[in-house]
Amino acid sequence: MSLVGALVGQLLFGYLADLCAASQGVGSINIVAWIVAMRFAMGIGIGGEYPLSAAICTEWAPTQARPRMMSAVFLMQPLGQLVAQLVGLAVLAGYNRTNPLTKCMGILVGTEEKAPDPRWCQSQVDSIWRWIIGVGAIPAVVAIYFRFQIKDPGLYDLDVRDRGQIAVENTQNLYRENLRELQQNATASGTRLHRVDSLPVQLTLPDMRDYFWNQGNWRLLAGTSACWFLLDVAFYGLGIGSPQILANVWASSRPTAGMNVNDHSSWNPGLSNPSIYEALLENAKRNILTVCLPSLLGSLLVIWLIDYIPRKQFLIYSFLALAMLMFITGGTFRAVAYTEKFPATIVLVALCNFLFNFGANTLTFIIPAELFPTSYRATAHGIAAASGKLGSVLVQVILPFMKFDGNPRNEKVSKPGSTSLGYVFLVFGGVMALGALFAWVWIPSMQNPRAEGESLVLQNKTLEELAEGVERYRSDGQVIGMRDNFKAAYKGLHRRLSHGQREPLGEEDVERK
Question: For residue range 213-239, what is the model confidence (pLDDT) as tens digits?
Fold first, then answer.
């Protein structure tokens, strides 16, 4: 593709140079446009990593280790965020030794305190930004190397490409097992080394239509997509990783009369730090303490506990816990913001970040990779992940136009001294409650029930069992679907009220379609 791009560029700009002069062609390469284009390209790459990493990890992982391995993959997100902040701090500290950023002072209305040369200050911060972006290429290069070392999962070679021998060889190379022993064990245990005829050889639209629509498995895709969509609406809508939002959360008082809050610098969102260096340093510290560390702890804890909690219930309760915590955080922020009691809000916001990763944020990544057949796994996971990003885009577009009647000034959430963030937390608490509803009606159980006297560790269902879809879940007594779940809940509630005793919600009473 790069050669094709070079060919197009040579022909196009050669013609335009004769038409408009070569110097104009060079000058038309706007740096901002290039940055936007590269950010877009980077977004494509990051988006592609979601389904690819999920599918590869899911299909290579042993059945019982699968959720922990996928949780470990997702752990890299908060770990990367923490490392990025630490790299920023290191570059900032190192650069300040030779180019003192303490000369770059914030501007206060009614005073003469300003940077000696604003253009010099801008160039210094620009250099820091370039160093940080450049360092970010290092883990990408490392990831590229390891990606070239990864073979296609044996399950993919077996189910999709119908290459049983290659599937066995790749599995042998990974697990270092003897090929003959692997084949003998597979035969003895009844494991298939050839593709089941009912499975499609490759992804096709007719097969997808049959699986998702005719067999009713669209409910699973709708459930995973809706949960991810609603999660990202709140996660990105709150913007609790942005310097402006964190500055409001950490503020002990409103901006003073001498500060022009309508023209505050993006590098100094709190309007209280006297230099660029101190402002950037404070921004990084706030992010590490409020966002990075709580998120990392949540991801570590979910790796430890994920085998002990049914994942469907885990997702439902994490949504409900986030809803309750956001209601509390919103009310608390309204009550104590810009007062000496502001640390209460900091603690609650940190807990929100902890619960995001100890629950819904991790589970919405894991569940879509488990539920679907190998032929559709990456596609379905990509659709669910894209639904989440759609939610993040929509909320960024809509939120600036939202009006909060309780706030007479209808200020932007990020504006210094604004109390609108409290209302945003309250709104997104309702969004999280809606996520719990969709998880309840459309997400199935992915583990076998724990028998009395057995270990506390829940046994995971195999990918082959999960791939059978809604029909298999219903044959196991599970209820999938909005109408059926409400019908089962109504019957269970009616039975309790009629007999005056506590009983389960009667999944076995649901009429099968």
Answer: 999 999 999 999 999 999 999 999 888
- Stated length of the chain: 513
Together in a domain, 342 and 471: no
428 and 495 share a domain? Answer: no
DSSP state of 152: P
pLDDT digits (tens, 9 = 90+) for 55-91: 888 888 888 899 999 999 999 999 999 999 999 999 9
Can you give the CATH number for the domain in which 346 is found? 1.20.1250.20
Check pLDDT > 60 for residue 414.
Answer: yes
Q: What is the mean pLDDT of residues 388-409?
A: 78
User: 26 CB contacts (<8 Å, ≥6 apart)?
Assistant: none
Mention every residue, 6+ apart, whose C-beta is less than 8 A from residue 317: 359, 436
Among the residue ranges 44-53, 180-189, 286-295, 450-459, the one predicted with the least confidence is: 180-189
State whether 121 and 243 are in the same domain: yes
For residues 380 and 58, give the distance between their C-alpha atoms in angstroms, rounded to a whole number.
13
Query: Residues 389, 46: contact at Cβ < 8 Å?
Result: no
357 and 481 together in one domain? no
- Mean pLDDT for 383-400 is 90
The more confident residue out of 371 and 3 is 371
Q: How far apart are CA 270 and CA 251, in angstroms?
A: 7
Domain annotation covers residue 6: no
CB-based contact 375:200 (threshold 8 Å) = yes
User: Is 159 inside any structural domain?
Assistant: no
361 closest CA partner among 309, 322, 325: 322
**Domain coverage including residue 331:** 32-149+210-442
Higher pLDDT: 143 or 115? It is 143
Q: Say if 42 falls within a structural domain.
A: yes
Token pair in block for residue 110? 């009614």
- The sign of the torsion formed by the CA atoms of 335, 327, 427, 381 equals positive
* Residue 307 located in a structural domain: yes
Question: Rounded CA gap, 208 and 254, in Å?
Answer: 56
Q: Based on the structure, what is the number of domains in the chain?
A: 2
Q: With contact defined as beta carbons under 8 Å apart, do 445 and 312 qualify?
A: yes
Examine the domain organization and report whether 313 and 352 are in the same domain. yes
Distances (CA, A) of 385 to 72, 221, 306, 434, 438: 18, 11, 21, 18, 16
| 456 — pLDDT class (breaks 50, 70, 90) | confident
